[in-house]
Amino acid sequence: PGPLPFAPLVETVVMREEAIPEVKSYPKELASPRFASVLAGGKNTGLVVAKKTAESASYDTLLIDLNRDGDLASSESVNLKLTERPAQGGKKLVMAMSDTARVGAGAGAVPIRFEFRDNPGFPLSARITYFPYVEAKITLGADTVLVAVLDKDLDGAYGGASDLWTVAGSGAWGSRPEG
């Protein structure tokens, strides 16, 4: 159907060495943890970027408090795709992008994507992309329709008073990949 008429909301945060209140616990075997809190779905959500071992050359682990209970278990690890490229002074820049994660529970879960950069000489930072809409195919009687909710006020929550809902019949969205 072509490009979306909306750009996603993006937030950048600096990862801190000090623990934060949103993260009560995390796997202690991780090395060099860095912490940040982001607003997802109108609630603060803790995240930790770390190295799997002290010998790891790069940050290779991302934990997101998907259920927002403050306990970041290994099961809340999000897959990362690591990319390295040369940086100034013969050093390397490591970038990582996560798969899309759903933060929160049930219908209020917010889809977000994280990426971070380990750039020599700069603080470790994470960039969080909030998607401006969610969509689902549902069956109404004998018809399958596409329902989309646009996060118009960009608060990361869908279904607020100013957010927009739309329904399209099966012929309106053309050929789309399933998922």
Order of helices and strands: EEEEEEEEEEEEE
Distance between the termini: 15 Å
Mean pLDDT: 76
Number of strands: 13
Percentage of β-strand residues: over 45%
**Helix percentage range:** under 10%
> Which secondary-structure class do the elements indicate?
mainly beta
Main beta-sheet annotation? 6 strands, antiparallel
Poorly predicted residue ranges: 1-6, 174-179
> What is the CA-atom radius of gyration, in angstroms?
19 Å
Number of discrete helical segments: 0
Oligomer: single chain
How would you concisely characterize the structure shown here?
The chain is mainly beta and about 180 residues long. Helices cover about 0% and strands about 45% of the residues.
Characterize the structure shown:
- This protein is mostly beta strands and 179 residues long.
- It contains no helices and 13 strands.
- A hairpin with a 6-residue loop joins strand 8 and strand 9 (110-118).
- The radius of gyration is 19 Å and the shape is elongated.
- The two termini are 15 Å apart.
- Residues 1-6 and 174-179 have low confidence and may be disordered.
Please specify the SSE layout and strand pairing.
Blueprint: E1 9-14, E2 31-40, E3 43-51, E4 61-64, E5 77-78, E6 80-86, E7 92-98, E8 101-103, E9 110-118, E10 125-130, E11 133-140, E12 143-150, E13 164-168
Antiparallel strand pairs: 1-10, 2-3, 3-4, 4-5, 6-7, 7-9, 8-9, 9-10, 11-12, 12-13
